[in-house]
Design goal:
With 100 residues, this protein is of the alpha+beta class. The protein has helices at residues 3-11, 55-59, 87-98; strands at residues 17-22, 25-30, 33-38, 45-49, 65-67, 77-81. Strand 2 and strand 3 form a beta hairpin.
């Protein structure tokens, strides 16, 4: 999965999705709510917000998905290693994050 592929999947979720550059990352937003951030915490990674009750499901997708460190893990934030995730799995994760 490349950053370009990630961006295409995120933007395809709806006409209301906006990509907003923030420093060295890109936030994907609907209105004032970010649901995913590309290149965070560093290049090759992304973070997505899923419902806390869906974290177990997200983590079950494999080693490419990890809990975000610190207090954000309680809010449902997961980290995704782009090079290690399948496109279908990422599409499902993005749809989950977008639907919150």
């Amino acid at each position: 999965m490349t950053p370009v592929d990630f961006s295409a999947l995120a933007l395809a979720l709806g006409a209301n999705v906006q990509a907003k550059p923030v420093l060295d990352s890109v936030q994907f937003r609907v209105g004032d709510k970010a649901f995913a951030t590309l290149h965070w915490p560093e290049a090759g990674w992304a973070v997505l917000k899923v419902a806390p009750a869906r974290q177990s499901w997200a983590l079950s997708l494999g080693a490419a998905v990890r809990l975000a460190p610190g207090r954000r893990r309680k809010a449902g934030v997961v980290m995704v290693a782009l090079a290690a995730i399948d496109a279908d799995q990422l599409a499902d994760l993005l749809a989950e994050a977008y639907g919150l």
